Amino acid sequence: MVKSNQQIYLDEMARELDADLVFELLQIYRLQMEDFFKKMENVTETFSFQETTMLTHKLKSSARHVGAFDVAERLNSIEEYPRKILHPGEYQNLKQLYLTTLKNIDQWSNELK
Amino acid sequence: MDQILIVDDDVSSRKLARYALQGNDGCFYESDNGEEALTFVLNENPGLIILDWKMPKLGGEDMIHLLNSILPYVDKEKSRSDVLIYSSIPFEDMWLPRSEFFRFVSYVSKKWPADEQVRKMKSIFRKINGQRHGKK
Fold first, then answer.
1. B13 or A51: which carries more pLDDT confidence?
2. I need a surface site. Which of A33, B10, B62, B96 has the fewest CB within 10 A?
3. pLDDT confidence band for B128 (50 / 70 / 90)
4. Is A91 exposed, middle or buried, given 0-12, 13-18 or 19+ CB atoms closer than 10 A?
5. pLDDT tier at B80 (50, 70, 90 boundaries)?
6. How confident is the model at residue B100 (pLDDT cuts 50, 70, 90)?
7. A28–B12: do the CB atoms touch at under 8 Å?
């Protein structure tokens, strides 16, 4: 199997730490991201973006912990300028990056089974 | 080690910190915000605080500032707590408040790979434990 950067990272974490811990971190990442997308789905100009800043700040760490560095980068730029989530394509791009990480995660998990 | 308090709004960071603490003596407590942690510190005076610097309800820096102003009026006999800063904010961008109640022992970046964060935390705990046992 050709491995992505994220899968190589997950391999290393499972080896160096503990596979159960990595699975827990993956589960947290998934739940937090889905919660974030739910919150951001219908955001408009009148939304209080303070919450977006805090959410993206928190999510960045969860994403990094599971090797989702592209997602963390994108969240970082939204944290710096939260209204960016309203820019055309921004939400979709982030979601696309997230879905790619999910694919990596699922492949990696299946490989371990 | 006596009581250890992990203060972080991110559950995955708390999980990693708790994992790194495995095998240590003492009671672990967790809080996801500085407000709640502030009350805990006032009442319990934990030996070690693993502290996130940026949180929605009172970040680590503001929590230390507030405690610095409250503690002199509360109990001057209390021993000081060690503080390990655990944050994604670069250390060079932080301003550590001077304090007679808290000793900043180290910094762990959330930007490091998870295994490196755990290794660094473990080595800090070993060092602190060694210092405490040495004192006894």
1. B13
2. B96
3. confident
4. middle
5. confident
6. confident
7. yes
Partners of residue B49 on adjacent β-strands: B5, B83
Is B13 in CB contact (< 8 Å) with chain A?
yes
Contacts of B12 in chain A (CB under 8 A): 25, 28-29, 32, 61-62, 65
Residues in chain A closer than 8 A to B111 (CB atoms): 64
Using a CB–CB cut-off of 8 Å, the residues of A that contact B are: 9, 12-13, 16-18, 21, 24-25, 28-29, 32, 54, 57-58, 60-62, 64-65
A9 CB neighbours in chain B (<8 A) are 113
How many residues in total does chain B contain?
A: 136
A8, A16, A17: best to mutate for the B interface, most B CBs within 10 A: A17
Q: Which of A52, A12, A32 is nearest to A102 (CA)?
A: A32
Please tell me the distance from the alpha carbon of residue B88 to that of residue B85, in angstroms, as a whole number.
Answer: 10
Q: Which two tokens stand for residue A52?
A: 């977006």
User: What are the distances in angstroms from CA A75 to CA A11, A39, A46, B54, B74?
Assistant: 24, 14, 20, 16, 41
CB contact under 8 A, A17 and B114: yes
Q: How far apart are CA B26 and CA B44, in angstroms?
A: 13
**Residue A49, both tokens:** 């973006």
Q: In Å, how far from its chain's centre is CA B22? A: 16
